[in-house]
Amino acid sequence: MENKTPAAGAAHQENKMGVLPVGRLLAGMAIPMMISMLVQALYNVVDSIFVAQISQDALNAVSLAFPLQNLMIAVGGGTALGINALLSRSLGEKHQDMADKAANTGIFLSLCSAVVFALIGLFLSRPFFLAQIQNPAVVEYGTSYGRICLGFSVGLFCQFCFERLLQSTGRTTLSMCTQLTGALINIVLDPILIFGLFGAPRLEVAGAAIATVAGQIIAACVAVVMNLRCNPDIHLRLREIRWNRQVAGEIYRIGLPSIVMQSISSIMTFGMNRILVSFTEAATAVFGAYFKLQSFIFMPVFGLNNGMVPIVAYNYGAARMDRVRKTVKLTIFTAVSIMLAGFTIFQLFPDVLLSFFNASEEMFSIGIVALRIICVSFPLAGFCIIAMSVCQAIGNPLYSLIVSVCRQLLVLLPVAWLLAQTGRLELVWLAFLVAEVISLTLSAIFLRRTMRSAEARIGGADAGTAS
Q1: Coil, strand or helix at 170
Q2: What is the CA radius of gyration of the chain?
Q3: What is the pLDDT along the chain (467 residues), one digit of tens a residue?
Q4: One-character DSSP codes across 12-24
Q5: Which one, of 97, 101, 96, lies nearest residue 82 by Cα?
Q6: What stretches of 321-412 show up as alpha helix (H) in DSSP?
Q7: How many CB atoms lie under 10 A from the CB of residue 333?
Q8: DSSP 234
């Protein structure tokens, strides 16, 4: 497997990430990613909307499966982030050999991850659901859903990897095409397989899982082809897709904090489900619906973030700190603006949002209050997401880990548990706002330190302007 060799002079041609105006570059890199992330958010929500038509038990099963799915996303996304940052930085430093090693070793790591999660899905899905709830219908739905999603996770991991290879070299439009392909396939297959349309068997929750993995596998195949045919900045070779201790260590040095951070999110979600189910099963359904709905707001920010990371990493590698600063400031402004729009929607239309999930009266009474309280933290989260990715992209991944641990394990869960002792469910949602304030404080401090340290390392402009 080898893509086309670039022309002799191509290797010396400056990548667009080092020469285009920052605003135009960020728009060109981020907008395709934001669109594709929005479509992904759509099919995540569509899954739950269709499943909710079966029963609240079915919706609860998909909601309770979120920690397992999030764990896969954590490993796949974190590994891809490490590949992305290392590859982009290597290209900026004109180290072609290291860029190629990052790509090929990253593919190997992604395949290994898929094998591990296939085993987890096969043997641990049922114990995982039994640890959260004793409702037999929810356990059965959830077990089949988990086994399919994890058992065929090779599509998810390869999609993450090969799409990030495209993003790392500035080809975000191609990456968008692969994501759109997977999302559209999922959206089309969902109602067909869940409800048994057009002669297909009625598979209910299992049908949603099959639609998901089918979209991921096909999108991954498209991404492989696009890298081989349209990405001459890196060279993929079958014989080089193997373990490389040095490269893997560097990938995980950057990506491991992200993996741990999202894994912590899985722990947080598991813990919150345990707290909420002690009030009523409808509360866990609301929590699951919230996570699906907030993806419409957070996913565009993650797409913006994915567009920013290679720009920051490339220009840091090329010692262009002025471009790094401009990119960071513009990205933070855009992210907070998106989050403010999300805050407005959640405040004004919580009932409309919940109605998409066939909500019962109990879900409405719980969910309207929950959405209005939690969304207050959105603008703060926008800043934190970008700030911590900047730290990861230019070599301070430990900061991101510290913020995530403090936010979700040391603040959110303990505060939620304490508020639950009051017996008032509406107070539990305040834990999200408390945690985000702590996260904002730490993120601002760490971003300032990271930018100043980067200025000092590459001899850039006066560090006093870094904030």
Answers
A1: coil
A2: 22
A3: 555 444 434 444 556 767 788 888 888 888 887 887 787 777 668 888 899 889 889 988 988 888 888 899 889 988 998 898 888 888 878 888 888 999 999 999 999 999 999 999 999 999 999 988 889 999 999 999 999 999 999 999 999 999 989 888 878 788 888 888 988 898 899 999 999 999 999 999 999 999 999 999 999 999 999 999 998 888 888 888 999 999 999 898 888 877 887 788 888 988 999 999 899 989 998 998 898 899 889 988 988 888 888 888 888 888 888 888 999 999 999 999 999 999 999 999 999 999 988 888 999 999 999 999 999 999 999 999 999 889 877 767 788 888 888 998 899 999 999 999 999 999 999 999 999 999 999 999 999 998 888 888 876 444 343 33
A4: GSPPGGGTS-HHH
A5: 101
A6: 321-348, 350-355, 361-374, 378-393, 397-404
A7: 12
A8: S
pLDDT of residue 15: 63
Judge whether 341 and 316 are in contact, CB under 8 Å: no
DSSP 26-56: HHHHHHHHHHHHHHHHHHHHHHHHHHHTT-H
Task: Please report, for residues 141, 210, 261, 347, the alpha-carbon distance to residue 150 in angstroms, rounded to integers and kept in the order given.
Answer: 14, 11, 20, 35
Burial (CB count within 10 angstroms: exposed 0-12, middle 13-18, buried 19+), residue 350? buried
pTM: 0.73
104-134 burial by CB neighbour count: b if 16+ within 10 A, else e?
bbbbbbbeebbeebbebbeebbeebbeebbe
Beta-carbon contacts of residue 135 (< 8 Å; ≥ 6 apart): 57, 60, 281
Residues 327-337: pLDDT tens digits? 999 999 999 99
Residue 459 is given by DSSP the state T
- Whether 409 and 439 have beta carbons less than 8 Å apart is answered as no
For helices 413-420 and 245-277, angle between their N-to-C axes, nearest 10 degrees: 10
Structure tokens at 365: 């009474």
Three-class SS state of 131 = coil
Return d(Cα 260, Cα 144) in angstroms, integer.
Answer: 26
Q: Are 314 and 84 in contact (CB under 8 A)?
A: no
Task: Name the residue among 289, 411, 406 with its Cα closest to residue 354.
Answer: 289
Helix residue ranges, H only, 131-244: 136-151, 154-168, 172-195, 205-230
Q: Which two tokens stand for residue 293?
A: 């709905």
3-class state of residue 132 by DSSP: coil
